[in-house]
Design brief:
mainly beta, four-stranded antiparallel sheet, globular, seven-stranded mixed sheet
């Protein structure tokens, strides 16, 4: 079992930047791959980025691969999502999630149902 808490959300100007944090507690953090997902009102949850257990592998949604960077510091039990050049369509609640599972295809790490644990989310609002 692992408990996840997101932080770092808030109001950001278009073109601005912010860094989200996902703090984990419980079982050994390095046992989990971590994903970031987001959900805007009236829209389905969508994949943003994922990072491997030791941090040497990352994968991004097309909308995120240029502007966003996922990273982790296992000593701090924390995963980060650096978001740059934010646009109005980035407005959403951002969730981090964790899985101990290994998948042979990156595709599965982009699917929310493959993750076992979820934080409560942090709101990011990009102003226009």
């Amino acid at each position: 079992q692992v408990h996840l808490v997101e932080s770092g959300g808030g109001l950001v100007q278009i073109g601005g930047s912010t860094r989200l944090s996902c703090l984990a507690s419980g079982r050994t953090f390095s046992n989990y791959a971590i994903g970031w997902f987001r959900q805007a009102p009236g829209k389905e949850r969508e994949f943003v980025a994922t990072i491997s257990k030791n941090g040497d592998g990352t994968y991004y949604a097309d909308s995120a691969k240029v502007r966003f960077t996922i990273s982790r510091d296992n000593a701090k039990n924390t995963v980060y999502l650096q978001m740059n050049d934010l646009q109005s369509e980035d407005t959403a609640v951002y969730y981090c999630s964790a899985t101990e599972q290994y998948y042979s295809r990156t595709y599965y790490y982009t699917k929310g149902w493959e993750y076992d644990y979820w934080g409560q989310g942090t709101q990011v609002t990009v102003s226009s």
